[in-house]
Amino acid sequence: MRASSTGEIDADRLWSRLSELAEIGKSEGGGVTRLSFTEEEWAAKDLVASYMREAGLAVREDAAGNLIGRREGRVEDAPVVLTGSHVDSVRNGGDFDGPLGALGAVEALQTMDERGVETERPVEVVAFTDEEGARFSFGMIGSRATAGTLTPEHLANEDENGVSIAEAMRASGLDPGRIDEVARAPGSVYAYVELHIEQGRILESKNLPVGVVTGIAGPAWLRFTLAGEAAHAGTTPMNLRRDALAAAAEVIGRIEREAARTGTSVGTVGQLDLSPGGINIVPGQVSFSLDLRDIDEDVRDDVEARIMHEAALLCEKRDVELETKTLQRLPPAPCSALVQDAAREACETLGFEPFGLASGAGHDGMHLTELCPIGMIFVRSKDGLSHNPAEYSSKDDCTAGAEVLYRTLLKLAGET
Ligand code: GLV
Ligand code: MN
Ligand code: MN
Q1: Which of 103, 172, 246, 384 is the most buried (most CB within 10 A)?
Q2: Enclosing domain of residue 235
Q3: Is the domain of 293 the same as that of 382?
Q4: What does the pLDDT read at residue 105?
């Protein structure tokens, strides 16, 4: 279905900003790497801040490093409508995961400015700090701070070089002792709506450019550490080995099987380290990550319990010690009727089918559910690819998403 001729945003401007932002942290192979509190993330925020100023927004940065651009409403002290996304990325990621929501929101507010639109409520675009969790295996730092749930223990999480979040903040000139100041007061936020690429294949399979998100699957992130015994690969008989990698391989096989059994859960081992790592040494120690998700928390937790049970048995059989640690665990987050209805109405006005779908990926809104009604608008992803340099959404589809966001914001902010 195509949009009728009611498009208002500047499609060329949005596309050229997306292209410019995509150059920051881009490797020769085309992948984008912008880890949190690095030069690349700050450069991306600086560029977005310049666009915010062009859009006539009042720009500030909070103590978590969240970049915020504000457009005032007509009613003094009215609760604010939040929109935006993130500009950090995974390692070797794509051009659209995060930037579309941040730049689509700036575009929507710039369009309001250029059209002389007034709203009752103020609207703020936020580029949240570290949504991805790629650096510290712990993410959504800026949105947790906004919700008032980021704790000193969270700030102790370390990256692979042993640098904690608190240290990384200090190195960026931020004071972790002031993190409490970032929390928004209860009642001060009217709603949060985020534009994002789908990162899956549903919209493409339905031949739809946009969709309205009904809820966000809950991720549990864990680290498994298996300790066996390093030994000589030539002299240690197979029946006397305590091979940590062979045990890990069996556990990973069970993870795949248990997640697949449900038909809805997804389980991924994306990081694996082994030591000592010699061609002629039986691996003595292995650690790997697990990312496990489902839109139904009970189903996810049941899969997790089965994996734990199987892993314990498999390791015991091989005389390998097993330790597991939970890195982060979020419940699934339903999207509010308020934001879904506004987004559906926006789709209908523009001639798009208001198709509802769940998000498999995690998003900052998950942390804001206690603070305000949340919701999201998705844009079709080519081949469903994301967290990959080939991630792509067409200019037309990005434009469609930004148009839907613009109208959703008008509705939520109360166009007068
Ligand atoms: C973020 O993209 C996540 O879902 O892990
Ligand atoms: Mn994202
Ligand atoms: Mn992502």
Answers
A1: 103
A2: 218-329
A3: no
A4: 99
Please, which pLDDT band fits residue 6 given cuts at 50, 70 and 90? low
Considering every ligand atom, which ligand is closest to the CA of 391?
Answer: 3
Q: How far apart are CA 304 and CA 19, in angstroms?
A: 40
Residue 1 pLDDT grade (very low, low, confident, very high; cuts 50, 70, 90): very low
Are 315 and 375 found together in one domain? no
Instruction: Give the residue whose CA is nearest to atom 3 of ligand 1.
Output: 362
Query: 381: CA distance to ligand 1 center in Å?
Result: 15
Instruction: Give yes or no for residue 362 CB within 6 A of ligand 1.
Output: yes
- State if residue 217 touches ligand 1 by the CB under 6 angstroms criterion: no
DSSP designation for 127: E
For the stretch 282-314, pLDDT in tens is 999 999 999 999 999 999 999 999 999 999 999
Interval between CA 6 and ligand 1 midpoint (Å): 33
**Domain-embedded: residue 155:** yes
- The pLDDT tens digits for 238-259 are 999 999 999 999 999 999 999 9
The model's pTM is 0.95
Q: Is the CB of 132 under 6 A from ligand 1?
A: yes
Q: Are residues 271 and 406 in the same domain?
A: no
> Is 2 a domain residue?
no
Residue labelled with tokens 């990005």: 398
- Ligand 1 pocket test: which of 290, 359, 387, 388 has the largest number of ligand atoms within 8 Å of its C-beta? 387
From the CB of 124, is ligand 1 less than 6 Å away? no
Residue 50 CA to residue 218 CA, distance in Å, equals: 34
Given phi > 0 = left and psi -120 to 50 = alpha, else beta, which region is 326? beta
pLDDT at residue 219 above 60? Answer: yes
Q: Hunting for tokens 């292209």 — which residue is that?
A: 19
Does a structural domain hold residue 135? yes
Query: How far apart are the CA of 324 and the centre of ligand 2, in A?
Result: 27
Contacts of 138 (CB under 8 A, 6+ apart): 154, 157, 165, 221, 327, 328
**Ligand 1 atom nearest 97 alpha carbon:** 2
The residue that leads in pLDDT, 211 or 416, is: 211
Atom of ligand 1 at shortest range from CA of 131: 1
